[in-house]
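The freezer alarm interrupted the setup, so I double-checked each line after restarting. Inputs confirmed:
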Amino acid sequence: MNDAEFVRMMASIILASSPLIIAVCGETITERAGVVNLSLDGTMLMAAMTGFVMGLKTENVWLGFLAGAIVGAVFGAIVAYGSISLGKSQVAVGFVLTLLGDDLSAFLGQNFTRIPGQVVKHLGIPLLKDIPIIGPIFFNQDMVVYFSYILIIVTWWFISRTQPGLHLRSSGERPEAAFARGVNVRRVRYLYTMLGGALVGIAGAAYSLDVKIGWSEGATRGLGWIALAIVIFGGWSPVRGALGAILFGATKAVATILQRTFPEISVVAFNAIPWVLMLAVLFVVGSDVTERLIEFMPKRLQPPLRRMLRITAPLALGSSIAEE
Amino acid sequence: MKPSVIKNPRMDRLYNLLMPLLAALAALAVGAVMLLLLGVDPVVAYSALLEGAFGSKNALADTLVKATPLLLVGVGICIAFRGGVVNIGGEGQLVVGAVASTLVGLSFPEASGWVVIPLALLAGFLAGAIWGGIPGVLKAYFNVNEILSTIMMNQIAVQGMNFLLRGPMIDPVQLQAASRIPQTARLSRLFDLPRLVPTRLHLGTALAVLVAILVFILLWRTIIGYRIRAVGLNPHASRYAGIHVQRYLVLALLLSGALGGLAGAVQVYGVHHRMFTDGSATGFTGSAGFNGIVAALFGQLHPLGTIPAAFLFGALLVGANAMQRAVQVPSALITALNGLLVVFVVSTDLWRRRLQHKQLSETLREEISQVKEVKATP
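Predicted 3D structure, all chains:
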C-alpha cells in the first residue's frame, strides 16, 4: 500500500465512523442521565428512511437531517414516557421500539428503495486541508464529519464542565440526592433522552444521506447495536466512545483489505471479526483481568492507566426513579 | 369502600386476559386505517386473516406449528427475565441449535429415528445452552453487559451458519449445480418428527407445551427456580441469603439459550427437514428469536401465560400471510402490523399496571384515613 492509498483509506474510515460517533455521543448523553435507550437500531433505521425521503421531497439535505432528528427525539420521548412516567423496564420498551422501527421503516419506505436522492456535499476546509497527511484525512471531508468533531468536544465539555451537565450526571448517578438538591430528575431524564435520541436520529440520517447513500430495507440494521456496544466500550465518555467508533471502522477496513489479500479464507470469517473483537473488548474492559494487569505496572502509571482502561457505568443506569 | 380490581382476584385475572385482546383489537383497528389508505376493504382483508389462521384444520395446524418456536423461545425468555438477565440472543441460539441438530442427522443417515431424533434435540438443546451460557459467564464473572453480548453472539452464529452451509455442510447435489444454494441435504425421512394428525402439525408443538409446563414447575415449585427468581428480584438480598448469585445468573441464561436451541432443532426436524440460509438469521428463523421475546412479554413473563400468547402470535403470522395472498397488500404492511401489535400489547400492560398502582395507592389512602378516623374518635 502506498501513501496515497493509506490516506484514502484513513479518510474513508473517518467518514464511515462519523455517524457512529454522533450516535455514540447521543446515547452517552442519555445513559449518563440514567436512561438506557435500547431502541437505537430501530431509531436509526426510521431516521435513515425519514431523512432520505424528506431530503428527496424537499430537495434539501438539511431538512432531511432535521426530520431524522425529530424522529429520533420522538423515539426517545417514547422510551422516556414508558420508563419514567409508566415505570416500565427501559429494556423492554426500547427493545419493542427496535422491532417497530425496523418494521415501520420497511413499510413506510417501500416506495423509496434504491433510488437516487439528496447527498451531503463534499466540503474541504481551506488551509487545513493542505496540511500533509492530516489535512486530507481529517479536513477534506463534509459537514457531517465536521459536525461529529464538534459534537465530541461539545458533549465532553457539556457533561463534565457545565452546571446542567452536573445535573445530568447526578440524575444518572444518584437520582435521590439530585432530587434532594432541587434537580427535577424526571425532567432532566426526559430532556436528555429526547436530545440523545435526536442525535441518534441525525446519525441515522447521516447514513442514508452521506455514508451509505440511499435507502433500502434494513439499510443500517445492526449499526445501532454496535453504537450501544461502543458507548460501553467508551466507558460513557464521548471522547473514548469516539475513539471506539473509529477503531471499529478501522477493524472493518482492515478486514476488507485482509479479505482481498487472502481470498482463500472465507468471507464470513472476516464478517465475523468486528463482532468477535467487540465481544473481546467488552470482556477486557469489564473483567478483573485488566485490573490485575494494571497492578503489574509501575505505581505512577497506574491511576492514568486505570482511568483509560477501566469502565464504571453510571450508578443509577436503567433504574426507575422513586415517585417523589 | 369502592370495589377495585386489585381487591378482587377474579376480576384481576379477567383483566389480564382481556387487556392483550383489547391491545390486539386496537392494533387491528390501526391496521384497518392503513388498509383503507391502501384502498383495500379491511373487512375482506381481516376475514382472510381469520380464515387463514383458524379457518380449517390445516390452517389451525399451521398456526400451531408457527407458534411452536415462539413458545419455546418465549419460555426461555421467561427464565432469563425472571432471573434478572435479558436475553436478546434468541435468534443466534435458534441458529446454533438448528445447525447442531442438523449435524447429528447428517452424521447418522442410517440410524433409527428413535435414536437420532432424541439425540438431535439434545444436541440442539446443548448448543443453545452453550450459546446462552457464554454471555451468562461473561455477565456473571466478567461484568459484560448481556444485552450486547447476546446480540453479538447472534451475529457470530449467523456468520458461522453461513460459513458451514456454504462450505462443509452444503448439500452435495448443490455442489454439482451452478447456483449452489446454501443448504444442507434433506435429512432422512425417518427422522421427521411424527405428525400428530394428518396435517403439518408435528410432535414438537406438544413438546413445547410440555416444556412450558416443566419450566413453570421449575420456576415456582423447585428450589433452583426459587433461587433463580430470588436473584432476579434482588441479587444483594440473595447473596446475603447464601445464594451463589453468579451461578444462578449463568444458569438462567444457559437454560434460556438451551430452549432457544431446542426450538431450532424442532424447526429443523419438524418443519424444514434441512438447514438453509439466505445470509441473515431471519431467513431460517423467521424472526422467531425476537418474536418469542414479545410472546413472553405478552404472556406476562409467565411460562403458562406464554402458551396462549405464542398461539396468538402464530395465528397473526399465518393469518397475515393468507391476508397478503388474498388482497395483495405489500408484505411490509404485515411486518408493520406486527410491530404495531407489539407496541399496543406492551403499552396496555403499562396502562394496566398503572391502573393497579393507582388503585393500590387509593386503597392505601382510604385505609390510612380510616385509621386516622379510628384514632380521632376516642
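Quick read of the result. Residues 1-6 of chain B have pLDDT under 50 and may be disordered.
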